[in-house]
Specification:
The chain has 313 residues and is an all-alpha fold. Among the domains are: 100 residues, no CATH class; 107 residues, no CATH class. 77% of the residues lie in helices and 0% in strands. It is globular.
């Protein structure tokens, strides 16, 4: 979706388009996480509950059902209103990337071009006289056209996408290799956060267990709902931050803004480990191991969730 919006907006409006994209993403996240913080979906959609599906199962099925409906609606709107102009590929670009992967096709193409140009420079004006050299040139041209067709067929093949990505790497500026490495390592930290943030809240902050006794299961469920509320706050900060990115990039530069966001991610991820230590220490010091979250630890965890909305924007 972000790439499609970048194509439609053009180079002069990419920053504004990114801000609009992040703001609407924040609106959707707020609605989604606020819905996840509620445990009443099974009451609103009672037909989803069966003898084999409890309340938690009904809530999950209802959330997926709503997600499917919204996804189909938004995709239909996008396909109807987004009009792309198909660009014709240039032969020179195709040959420069894919021709070295075909055996001798590029050499044959260059050789045929030189022979053709040489024949034109000699100024043959007699169209009735056909020499053996001209027949050879015609056969060479036919061979070059067939090689060109092979290259175009290769470019249209299913394996060409990976080949184009790998061959285009050599055209990148030197600094882009560092950017790609940092982006890969940064997303290695983002995906565990997306997958296990609410689980971390239920286990490490609330000390619950989805497979424990009744009180532990309740504590885990409360922690998961509190984690969803933290993601709601994260989305609110994401929406606010999306409008601040463009002015900040103009004031201090995009490179510094990007570096600061990565350091925020690092600090917040490190703080989750520190909070886990503190929460476990407080939990172990209680004589009866009272299940639940410490108020200070819970507030700190919500602050961390909120701060991560800035680098996410």
């Amino acid at each position: 979706a972000r790439a499609l919006l970048a194509d439609l907006s053009g180079p002069d409006q990419c920053n504004s388009a990114n801000a609009i994209f992040c703001s609407w993403m924040a609106v959707g996240n707020v609605l989604g996480f606020s819905a996840g913080a509620s445990g009443n979906w099974h009451k609103w959609f009672p037909f989803l509950m069966t003898r084999a599906c409890c309340e938690a199962c009904g809530n999950l099925k209802a959330a997926f059902l709503i997600a499917v409906v919204f996804l189909l609606f938004c995709m239909a709107v996008t396909l109807y209103f987004a009009e792309e102009i198909a660009l014709e590929p240039k032969d020179a670009q195709q040959l420069s990337d894919s021709a070295p992967l075909l055996n001798g096709s590029r050499d044959d193409h260059d050789a045929s071009s030189e022979q053709t140009n040489g024949g034109l420079s000699n100024g043959h004006a007699d169209t009735n006289h056909v020499s053996p050299n001209s027949r050879a040139e015609d056969s060479t041209d036919a061979g070059s056209n067939s090689n060109k067709d092979d290259v175009e067929a290769f470019n249209d093949g299913p394996g060409a996408v990976l080949v184009k990505i790998l061959t285009s790497m050599r055209h990148l500026p030197p600094g882009m290799y560092s950017v790609l490495l940092v982006m890969a390592l940064t997303w290695l930290s983002w995906f565990p956060f997306f997958l296990f943030d609410t689980d971390w809240m239920g286990r490490e902050v609330y000390h619950g267990d989805p497979k424990g006794n009744a009180s532990e299961r309740k504590a885990y469920d409360d922690g998961v709902r509190e984690g969803a509320f933290g993601l709601l706050l994260n989305s609110v900060v994401l929406g606010i931050g999306s409008f601040l990115i463009d002015p900040l990039c103009r004031m201090i530069g995009a490179r510094l803004v990007w570096a600061i966001s990565n350091f925020i991610v690092f600090a917040c991820m490190l703080a989750t480990t520190i909070l886990s230590w503190i929460s476990y220490d407080l939990y172990s010091s209680k004589l009866q191991h009272i299940v639940g979250a410490d108020k200070t630890v819970k507030t700190s965890a919500l602050i961390l969730f909120s701060l991560l909305g800035l680098p996410l924007s």
